Amino acid sequence: MDGLNQLLRAAPTPNTPLSGGRLHSSTSPHLALTVALYAHQRLNPRLSYLALRTLTRFAQKLNVPLVACLGGEAEGIRDALLRRLDSATEDVRVKVALLRLLTASTTRQQGLTNAFLTPPEKLLDPLTSLFNPSTSTSSGRELGLAVVELVDALWSEKYTTATTYLQDKSDFWQALVLPLTKEKTNEVNNAIVGHTLRVLARQVFSSDAKPSACLKSAMDKLCDPVKGTICHWSEHIVSSLEDSSQLSNDVTELLLPAWRDLVVVMVARAKTWLADKQKVSIASDILHALLNQLENESMDEKLALLLAELYLALVKHCGKNLIEKEDCFKGVGKLLVKVQEAVMTTPTHSQMLILGAALRMVKLTEPSAQSQGQALTLLGPVTWLVQQHGRLAGSSSSSSSSCTTAATLSLAAALLHQCLLRCAPDAARPFLAHTPVVPALLHAVETYMQCGEEEVVGELLLLLSTLSRVAELSDDLSTQTLSSTLTLTIPPSKTGLLSEVVWGVVWGVRREGVGGVEGGVNVAAVHLGALCGALGAPHRQPALALASATLVSSLAPYASMWIVTHPASYSQLTAATTRCIHITTQLLHTPRVVEMELSGERSSSSGGSSEAPAIAPQITAATTEVLNRMLQVVCACLSALIALGPDLTDLLCGPGIDVGAWALFFHPSFRPVSAHDPNAQPSLASLTSVLDLYDSHASKESRGLSPCRGGAPEVGLCVQVLAVTAEKALLLLLTQSTLALMRPETPPRDSLRVRHGLADEMNSFFTRWLGRRPAASPLPSSSSTASGTSCTAQVDLTYLRLAQQLVARLASNK
After folding, report:
1. What angle separates helix 621-644 from helix 567-589, to the nearest 10 degrees?
2. What is the C-alpha to C-alpha distance for residues 310 and 277, in angstroms, rounded to an integer?
3. Cis peptide upstream of residue 567 (ω within 30 degrees of 0)
4. Is the pLDDT of residue 149 over 60?
5. 3-class DSSP assignment, residue 168
6. Is the predicted pLDDT of residue 202 greater than 60, yes or no?
7. Highest mean pLDDT: which of 346-350, 605-609, 638-642?
8. Region 170-194: what's the mean pLDDT?
9. What's the burial of 622, exposed, middle or buried (CB within 10 Å: 0-12/13-18/19+)?
10. Buried b / exposed e along 279-290 (16+ C-beta atoms within 10 A)
11. Is the pTM of this model over 0.85?
């Protein structure tokens, strides 16, 4: 026995031979076999216990298969040990030592484990009876822990022989969850609970939402909403984390990770086992524990990370249940306050998980009075977080680099942006007034643009454009500051980033008026090529094209100042805007061309021909989205040209109006112009083409039929936007036609063609929408009023009657 004690205390190394010098001969038994034979000793249980402990040390330290060392005696030794494990009179210490040997062998001695699992019932059947021994003695508790450790190891190392055999054993699953369902939480060893939860988590995950009846019965007991067992364990785990006297490795290294795994698997895979009330209760416990960790001066970073991961998973899969509770947003707001107060000491990974959970919760809400109140609880701390992370961007100190990253700032900026979208400007401004967030954002944009973090820069620019619309006017947020800082920082090739810069300037010009013109013209001048290029290919760059057209519309009221400041950008952008209407309308009429362009199927050898192939591609959802963005571009371009031209009422009735002071953007004819000729000036037919597009999508005659020329598949363009676009196109058509007829330099022949073309093109349109009523009275009839036509979905009929009367007058020779 003294020799075995020495072997047990000695730590063998991989270079230590298994046989001693005296036994090194062809007839000498192997050292491992010699030790294993001591396990047969029944007269002194301590001798068997020490032998098994020695074999466990061999299994852990030596890279030698022990089953091979046992030779022909392996089966006999296995059967003898299994009989002792199943014996009711065997010493508990021997059983524990054997179970620990098998647990250790699962990772490094798979051959030995497989030998004991052949057949599986000889080892696994006795385990069920050993699951819940008497807990009144320390040896009984030790035996229960050894059993669940072995079961956990078998599941962890994926011994399918064992897991397949046990997964349909009802007695096994009932015995496994018995300590969790029958005993009080403070009477069960935390390690036993941890291993049990880990086995349940792995089995629920592997069952792929189709658990066996045995597992489902056991889990139903654990998740019984009447008894509230699982909520009691949640409270116990949280209280263990708060009580430093109970905090041990069993809690931090085993119990909490196992709890996280089980809860995540249950809410993600087995969604019906937990009731909504239980989900909310568990989330509340986790949030409370996370707050407690952040308030603690000696915060355990690993614990905070585990809790944050679990809370994010609960928000991801149960967010709709959580946002219905008022305390949920208040708790997350307190959490963000704690993160903001301890931003230098909170690990970035934990901050990202917390910000991600808050962002997901905000995105689940719809803009409303209730969501505004919820967003306002987060607005203050997240604004300071953005300012802090923006200020720390690019810092070279080790303390700063450990508490901030580009991804952390991106999440904080996204959260602030979503909160601002759900708040009225007047409600949000007090939270933004005392926070120098804009200088920090501009500094971060410059820093991360140099590092190539384009995705992060895009999120920051999106936030800046929103702040330009919402926040109070200040020198930090002026159009001049944004343009001077961002114009040279963002290269023209980064069209996605450039569009957000343009939007920021657009909102600035609209709010500042004349004071913002210089900044807007500066952006237009520096990025002139990119803006004109986007307007020339709106299907390729719809976001930048829309921003460019809106910029022209915003600068239009100050056209004279724009012309003086930078005439080249004015002339080129107005021409590009006019041509964009022509190109985009033709593309909207032939969506298959757009589909082929975006998918790369259109042959480059076609010489620019828009002729569709014999088998037309199907219009995908992504292309439909692009087509709707293009429709918005057309609407913005029409608004820009209307703002740049004269008021139609002043043109018709104003005394002494200078007709020559206004530009004629469209050629005064209704002859179609090719979209592939870059030098051709679009004609008035481009505007009637917009009306044709509206007519084909919104008229009753074509409802349910193909709305596009050439038999293209139906495309779901937004009828509301299309109606607004048609109204603007009709107004611009009347304005440009009137201007052409009033200009003294227009030849009489061209004036006559304009009158005839206007009458021909518009009479058919009016006939389809107004019927064959005379154009004498523009007042709405009772029948049309009762029809229920909404101006948001169709062009207003009164507006059409007024336009019909005006066309009739313009078409006459009087």
Report:
1. 140
2. 17
3. no
4. yes
5. coil
6. yes
7. 638-642
8. 87
9. exposed
10. bbbbbbbbbbbb
11. no
Percent of the chain at pLDDT > 70 equals: 86
* Of 686, 684, 692, residue with least CA distance to 734: 684
Q: Given this model, what pLDDT does residue 793 score? A: 66
Using the structure block, give the residue that is written with the tokens 């229920």.
Answer: 788
Radius of gyration of the chain (CA): 38
Cα–Cα distance, 70 to 209 (Å, whole number): 43
The CA-atom distances, in angstroms, between 377 and each of 227, 380, 432, 577, 596 are: 35, 7, 13, 43, 47
Rounded Cα–Cα distance for residues 244 and 240 (Å)? 8
Rounded CA gap, 200 and 180, in Å? 12
Tell me the C-alpha distance between 230 and 214, whole Å.
18
The residue ranking higher by pLDDT, 466 or 770, is 466
Q: What are the contacts of 596-602 at 24+ separation with CB within 8 A?
A: 597/539, 597/540, 598/539, 598/622, 598/623, 598/626
Tokens of 287: 């949030």
Quick check: helix, strand or coil at residue 633?
helix
Using CA atoms of 170, 176, 179, 180 in order, give the dihedral in degrees to the nearest 10. Answer: -90
pLDDT digits (tens, 9 = 90+) for 669-725: 888 887 777 777 888 889 999 988 888 887 544 443 444 444 433 567 888 899 899
Chain position carrying tokens 């057949």: 119
Burial of 629 (0-12, 13-18, 19+ CB in 10 A): middle
Provide DSSP, 53-74.
HHHHHHHHH--S-HHHHTGGGH
DSSP secondary structure string, 241-281? HH-TTT--HIIIIIIHHHHHHHHHHHHHT-TTTS-HHHHHH
